[in-house]
Amino acid sequence: MNDRIQLIAILVSLIIAGTIFQLIRKKKLLEQYSLLWFFSAIVLLIFSVWRDLLDRMAGAMGIYYAPSALLVIVIFCGFLLFLNFSLVISKLTNQSKDLAQEIALLQNKLEKLENQSFQAKDDGTI
Description:
The protein is built from four helices and no strands. The chain has helices at residues 3-25, 31-49, 53-61, 66-123. Helix 1 (3-25) packs antiparallel against helix 2 and helix 2 packs antiparallel against helix 4 (66-123).
């Protein structure tokens, strides 16, 4: 990797980290969802700064072409992000189902109270 590509990679990594920080600061991204993005930006920054790390990781993984190792790492990070989002969506789905059931129960109670109130008016007990 020549110096210009390394400098561009470092700048892109810092821009990604700064963008994530700004999204958190403006409350457009919750902190709990930003950890994996920060982790990804830090991994990119580490690969950008440490030139031999990708070659060493490729050798450790048994991959002879270092950019292929980077692709494997990116796919793994994407898999982690998809799994995290699936867990969040599942949790939100369960919460919305519970809320819908509670609303239905409250509406049922309200209708019963309204019916009792109307019957009491009709009977003249109120």
